[in-house]
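Sorry, explain these tokens?

***
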Amino acid sequence: MIPAVVYAIPAFVLLVAVEALSYRFLPDDEERGYETRDTVTSMSMGAGSQVVGLPWKAVAILAYAGLYTLAPWQLSPASAWTWVLLFFADDLAYYVFHRAHHRIRVLWASHVVHHSSVRFNLSTALRQSWTPMTTLPFWLPLALLGVPPWMILLQQSISLVYQFFLHTERVDKLWRPVEFLFNTPSHHRVHHGSNNAYLDRNYGGILIVWDRLLGTFEPEGERAVYGLTKNIDTYNPLRVAFHEYAATWRDVRSATRWRDRAGHLFGPPGWAPGTDR
């Protein structure tokens, strides 16, 4: 089964070109805009993620299908309530997945790819991980709820398409009720900021309500500084994809205690022996 998001790729590429042209004809000195090498890297990461992701989807479908057959009931796609449940369950699963990938270093090693650009534009949305296997556990409960596997994959694609449009500086804050309920470019700029006030905030996918309820919401105030707290300064897709895995392995190998090795793997990014973070 080809993920629905694949069919949106031509539109993504076209919109990246349109946004890049908008900076040429309507420049903004406060916005970073595009840089050719950065954009090529982001699009290379996106292409690579699709190559890796297609066979991995087969594994995910088998896992979802196995649990779906074990579910105490199977929900009907013909019922509107199944789609409502799926929308909220998928969005909550994304929040948990996203938060875990920021707070557990071995998961962050996969997700850090998406935050490695010092620019924030529609091409940044395409800068995706080449190690998608870390995502699977977070959506397994939806299959156990009785949601058909194809519906889970479809809703994941809908969420990803929505999130593509969050990666822009060209859209200011939206109507207040929209900003209150939904993830918006303003909220997502905060998420991509390396400012101290913005770290580990605004994990939402389509909705921002989980962040509001669970204490991880931060409104946009000071201008975001994009990238990592320690930028990697490379446009090499292989280094972008695997640099944090290599750094994690170096720390694990140099540790002398099993407790410290576990800390380097399962502690938050930046953890070191003797620190609380």
